[in-house]
Amino acid sequence: MFALLMLIAGTATSSLAIYTWIQGRKPSVRTFALLLAAISLWLICISGWSLSSTVDLAMRWFWLQFLGVAMVPVLLLSYVLHFTGRGSALTPSRRLALWVIPLLTQAFAWTNGLHHLMFREIHFSSRDGILVLSSWVAGPWFLLYSTYSFGIIAVALLLMARAVIGSPNIFRRQLLALLIAIIPAIILTLLNTFQLLSANLWLTPMAFVLTGAVIVWAIVRHQMIAVVPVARDLLIEQMDDAMLVIDERERVVDLNMAMESLLGRGRGDLLSQSLYSALFHVPDLLDSARLPDATPAEIELSSGSRVRHYEVTARTLRHNSAPVGRLLVLRDITRTKLAQAELFTLATTDSLTGLYNRRQFFQLASQQVEIATRSRRPLSLLLFDIDHFKQVNDCYGHEAGDRVLVEVASRAQRVVRSQDIICRYGGEEFVILLVDTGGADGGQVAERLRDLVAGTPIDIGGDHVAATISVGVATSVPDALMTLDDLLRLADGAMYRAKQAGRNRVAYAERVVGGGQAAEA
């Protein structure tokens, strides 16, 4: 009965391993399948020596069991690391180091007759018609291997216990199920290994039967192998959007690789951390996590010299209508923002000079005129064009003319402030609106600009052009309800007089105010 029970348990566990392996390619799922396979081999080997007709055949089954026995501790630790988000700790070199002693153990087991490092003596006896391992004398390597294995198992149990405390309900139930499944078997194996139990007891193999039963229950009841199911792998781990899940106590319970990369911290470091601890170095993101549901926010995050834009959405997660946590999703909208900025630039600026175009100037300048009128503050408008510009195009070509336009625009930008509005008004004509600037100050800016343009010839690619400008200045005053069109008309008249007077000079508009209108004298 005992041997048959072991065989059934081993076969069932083996089938479970195959089923688990088929369910997904995630490292945690595959490692769990291998762990079940190792336990299955262990149980089948126990059944094998129990049913053996000779001691020699039983010994063969006894040594074969170490293929499964040696793998269980390392596979258990690997599974727990993947489950708790620390799978990245299993670098190739560390994984190889973990397997050195198990592999040597298997080699020493099959060659024990040559050196007796594993066991000095092994005795089987017949009990109730089956062969049982009645006594043995351990060798030095077996003691070393046992210490190593139980040390690894202890680390795995500590990681699981820590994860149980800091995990949400669904993951906590899965971990508890696994703990319930393996702890009895581990305790009894420990006692049996150091011969603290009677050797003929069935407690150790029976404990593994219990392990298999509990694991089956965990798979059915708590979706044990769905810790990271295929759907989650495809939809969350590989998604470009960064995702963070917190529970009702604002502790991090899940995140994907995109969020790990964004925060610069591994999943193992972030799980079970408070939301503040996880996001304190990105306060904008921390504030966004507490936004009302479906209220998107935009934030900027810097990485070195790069700035990326994200749309943040937070949603409450519910189970049976009760809130159980929140989902935070960050979508990278950097390309969208750059495209929007580019479209805005194309719509509002002159492609050659980089100054505002005429349409954008009217929109911005009209607002400033309205503000100045309400607050009774002065404005000055400078309208200027490049003298004899047609001759530059005729003599040197349009490419040279473009260079002159770009250089004049650049020099004009040097004399204005950030709050002033400058645009290419059309052709070789430019306009500047000086905010909070009276006539005297406006005239000084105009003279400084004229000197700056005329002071240094412009390089047009081998040749130099001595460019000059004629500037018309118009200024609004508190007692004149002037519009932007009034200022432009007055400045245009003043610029025309500057040209008539010989060019390369500044002329000022004369105002006649009556009936709330302004006109050139």
Would you kindly provide a written description of the structure presented here, covering whatever features stand out?
The chain is an alpha+beta fold. It has three domains: 2-227, Rhodopsin 7-helix transmembrane proteins (Rhopdopsin 7-helix transmembrane proteins, Up-down Bundle); 239-337, Beta-Lactamase (2-Layer Sandwich); 349-520, Reverse transcriptase/Diguanylate cyclase domain (Alpha-Beta Plaits, 2-Layer Sandwich), CATH 3.30.70. 56% of the residues lie in helices and 20% in strands. It has 20 helices and 16 strands. The chain has helices at 2-23, 27-51, 55-69, 72-83, 92-110, 112-115, 140-166, 169-193, 203-222, 230-237, 257-263, 267-270, 275-279, 283-288, 334-348, 358-375, 389-396, 398-414, 439-455, 484-500; strands at 119-127, 130-138, 242-247, 252-255, 297-303, 306-319, 322-332, 379-386, 421-426, 429-435, 458-459, 464-465, 469-476, 506-508, 511-514, 517-520. The strands form five sheets. A five-stranded antiparallel β-sheet has the order 4-3-7-6-5. Helix 20 links the parallel strand 13 and strand 14. Helix 2 (27-51) runs antiparallel to helix 3. The N and C termini lie far apart (121 Å). The model is unreliable at 226-234 and 512-521 (pLDDT under 50).
Task: State the main characteristics.
Rhopdopsin 7-helix transmembrane proteins, 5-stranded mixed sheet, 521 residues, single chain, Alpha-Beta Plaits, Beta-Lactamase
Short description:
The chain is of the alpha+beta class and 521 residues long.
Write the layout of secondary structure elements.
Elements: H1 2-23, H2 27-51, H3 55-69, H4 72-83, H5 92-110, H6 112-115, E1 119-127, E2 130-138, H7 140-166, H8 169-193, H9 203-222, H10 230-237, E3 242-247, E4 252-255, H11 257-263, H12 267-270, H13 275-279, H14 283-288, E5 297-303, E6 306-319, E7 322-332, H15 334-348, H16 358-375, E8 379-386, H17 389-396, H18 398-414, E9 421-426, E10 429-435, H19 439-455, E11 458-459, E12 464-465, E13 469-476, H20 484-500, E14 506-508, E15 511-514, E16 517-520
Parallel strand pairs: 13-14
Antiparallel strand pairs: 1-2, 3-4, 3-7, 5-6, 6-7, 8-10, 8-13, 9-10, 11-12, 15-16
